[in-house]
Prior knowledge:
Number of strands: 8
Distance between the termini: 37 Å
Oligomer: single chain
Strand order of the largest sheet: 2-8-3-4-1-5-6-7
Strand content: 15-25%
Number of helices: 8
Amino acid sequence: MPTPGFPPHTLDPDGSPIWISALATGDPNHILHVVRGIEPAEALEALGAKPALIQPCRLPDRKPDAWTSLPGAALGIAPGTSAALLSGRVGAWTFVYDDSGATYDDTATEALSAQGRTAATGLYTINADASLTYAVDGQVVEWVDVDDLDVDKDLADMPAELRAAFEAAGTVEEEDFEPGEADGDVVMRAACALAGLALTLDDVRDLPLLAAPLG
């Protein structure tokens, strides 16, 4: 089910980037941060990870249960005890996947974007709330709430690269949705499109990865 900018086999049947849904728990409450011009370890520290706890990560073959993410399994975290952060870099962009939504805060996106960088944070909650925060040089420039997003009208007012990311993310048809209505996974697709992360889980496994517990 490709959408504009996403090749076949990079989205799951619900329209989520397939590597994100492969990392996530069965009922996700998670975040994807992307930032241009910073290394994975620096990004983890900016989000509150303790340097001594940051470690190289090899993802396991499978999740032990529906309540444990792949990064959580790699770190040996019991469900509900701590968040697991996973970070890697593709080209100029670094991503940090947060399996528990522990790093959701405008100040986190602002910290990632400090010193002239660009960052975005895609959030999808267990209650199906979805939003994207976009920041440049330490300041939030755009906040997109999917419930209020009109794809046909609102994209024109976005910064050019963010608009291009949402155009690449496209929309996924769902039952009871009006034509062009944004689905919740659009924020994850947009963050991935912004950072060039149209990946499979195997692509992610091939990257040098770092992980850290948080909280």
